[in-house]
Amino acid sequence: MFEISRRRMLGETAAMVALAGAGPFKAFAATAPGASSLPDTEWRHYAADQASTRYSPLDQINADNFSDLEIAWSFKTDALGARKEYQFEATPLLVKGRLYLAAGSRRDCIALDAASGELLWMHRLDEGQRALNSPRQLSGHGVSYWTDGTKERILYVTTGYRLVSLDAATGIPDPDFGTNGIVDLKLDFDQQLDPDTADVGLHATPLIARDTVVVGAAHAAGDVPAVRRNVKGYVRGFDVRTGKRKWIFHTIPRKGEFGYDSWLNGDADEAGNGGVWAEMSADEELGLVYVPVELPTGDEMGMFRRGNALFGETLVALDIETGKRRWHYQLVHHGLWDRDIPCAPILCDIPVDGKLVKALAQPTKQAFLYVLNRETGKPIWPIVERKVEAGDVPGEWYAPTQPFPTKPPAYDVQGVTIDDLIDFTPALRAKAVELVKNYKIGPLYTPPVVSKPGRWGTIISPGIQGGTNWPGGCYDPETHTVFVYSKNQPGVIGIIPNTNMTVSQFPQVHGISGEEPRPQVAMGSETNGAPPPRRPAPAPAAAAGPPPGFLAVDGLPLLKPPYGRITAIDLTKGDLKWQIAHGETPDNVRNHPALKGLKIPRTGRPGNLGPLVTKTLVICGEAGFYTNEYGVRGAMLRAYDKATGEEKGAVYMPAPQSGSPMTYRLRGKQYIVVAIGGGNYSAELVAFRLPGAA
Asked: In this structure, are strands 647-653 and 626-627 parallel, antiparallel, or unpaired?
């Protein structure tokens, strides 16, 4: 399972494209002139279908030939913007032989010929300072498609937070939609916003169901919030033909609305954020859209959002026609760990007690898969409230309990114990034990603490990025199995007094004692979403080991591997079927002098990855670069037997997977398409097919 195929190590990249729907979620098919006897298949939604399954029944590419894949074509996005992009998160759509996606640092909407990669049309809004101020930069996740059988439209959200509707054939704005094809999302938002500076944008695709376009909202990272009363991240539904607003759902309830009483002292009136930055799912038959909500303002500080504070970190089912709440389930009460629900729930029909139940499965940053009845919101297996520890941050409010699913079990490491620490050698373990003496450790939901020398903060696992993040998982309807990638990368949460009110209006913010508060940065800015480099806090001259806040032991990860894994979860039983380390061992681990002579199995590697499942395979690229035995730097696209997790093939890519793969069949040939990029390798879309398939 840990042996890697070394075939075709040069000149190849991996691209994966997955076909839509099964069961109640229909796949789309069309036969183009001159096509072979095999019908073309399409990928009309960001995650294959409205259920977010990322499933395709295609099997021309299979275990026997996966390692033979060759590049059919590639498309660089360097010219689409004033600067190159290195964080290319797109998954394209495939409709009638064309790929549609957003690309480039200015977020152009483009159409490509799916057989050749030729650019067919491009649409761009030059939004000036409004785009430069956006909290969500670069190309985002993608676009959405709609048709009534006659009209065909591509819709996307610009960097500056405008909703655009384009003719799918030409890329020309729809004159019947909004104003010249554009709806300004900073208007008609039940709050007054500055059009150029308001902290709101979106990376996610708009969701379209029953002729309603549902749009979420995202904000700058909230660990050091600039203001207390930030933009409220409401969710809205628009008429897909006209752009007229149909409804709005207040993710932070107003007085008199359901959920307002879950806030103490009227905190809901002042709080902001609470947006939906993740992708969403929809069940048109039930008339429901499933909305994963983030925290209100203050990712690790809740002193201004006291109480359980609905609908923070809550999955909400809304009526697609009216926006009315049908049900909700809060996954974390008064979160202090930045456990925003990061991705769309996967809708699935599963057998429970001999009956087929309409369910959903929600992957999370905390590495729990929450499985609920999607009609009612009730858990399929019991979710129990357990007491959790309170912290010591002045003015903070602590929830006494948190919900813990009894099934399925956690699919990655939760919390930190001594047994979780690096143990390649006794010396490394001893250093790790000494390091964690300067931190608070404990189980999942161990609270953040005031940072001070000797207790710099709380080590949390999974870290703030998860677990699972925005790409989410995939689902095989044949075996009722969810496949999800997760990373094992802990983080530190310390709370420090705010000494600079020009950076934040909060009296305490996320940080390490001795540091200055670090201002928020836009996701996808020049730093590609990373905060400014941490200035190490001062330490005594005799102190040894890494600076406070850095969780490394002689340059090695603090915790034992795997650092990244793929897990198969059986939804008929609520059990884990298999787990494998996903990703080649990082160079700094393989080549570390302290590990010389040790035989270490593949460790996997951390990142944000979305897998694809086909009739026989689970396919996923690697996060990050590694150097192979020929001295070539790159990453691998890997395929695993979906029944066992055994690796069946791998092909070389010049850069890591950055967007989730998809697949389609065109003129009898199956393609896999994936966005890659990172490090010093700029964004590229790569299409793979088998040899002789031209």
From this structure: unpaired
pLDDT tens string 446-474:
999 999 999 999 999 999 999 999 999 99
pLDDT at 92 over 60: yes
- What is the phi/psi pair of residue 590, to 5°? -60, -35
Three-state SS for 380? Answer: coil
DSSP state of 448: P
Q: Which residues 6+ apart lie within 8 Å of 355 measured at CB? A: none
Q: Please tell me the distance from the alpha carbon of residue 450 to that of residue 391, in angstroms, as a whole number.
A: 9
Strand partners, 450: 495
pLDDT of 34 above 70: no
| Distant-in-sequence, close-in-space partners of 67: CB < 8 Å, separation ≥ 6 | 5, 7, 8, 649, 650, 651
Q: Tell me if 655 sits within 8 A of 37, measured CB to CB.
A: no
User: Alpha helix locations (H) across 555-619?
Assistant: 587-590
Residue 228 is given by DSSP the state S
Mean per-residue pLDDT over the chain, rounded: 92
Fold of 29-529+547-689: Methanol Dehydrogenase; Chain A (2.140.10)
**Are the beta carbons of 498 and 517 closer than 8 angstroms?**
yes
Alpha-carbon span 442 to 76, nearest angstrom: 46
* Tens digit of each residue's pLDDT (9 = 90 or more) over 212-261: 999 999 999 888 999 999 999 999 999 999 999 999 999 999 999 999 99
3-state secondary structure of 267: helix
Question: Residue 461: phi, psi to the nearest 5?
Answer: -145, 125
pLDDT tens figures, 669-680:
999 999 999 999
H-type alpha helices, 520-672: 587-590
Q: What is the mean pLDDT of residues 346-360?
A: 96
What is d(CA 365, CA 313) in angstroms, rounded to the nearest whole number?
11
Domain positions in the chain? 29-529+547-689
d(CA 605, CA 589): 10
d(CA 90, CA 661): 9
**Residue appearing with tokens 């691998």:** 636
- Check residue 223 and give its pLDDT: 86
Q: For the stretch 647-676, what's the b/e string if a residue is b when 16 or more beta carbons lie within 10 angstroms of its beta carbon?
A: bbbbbbbbbbbbbbbbbbbbbebbbbbbbb
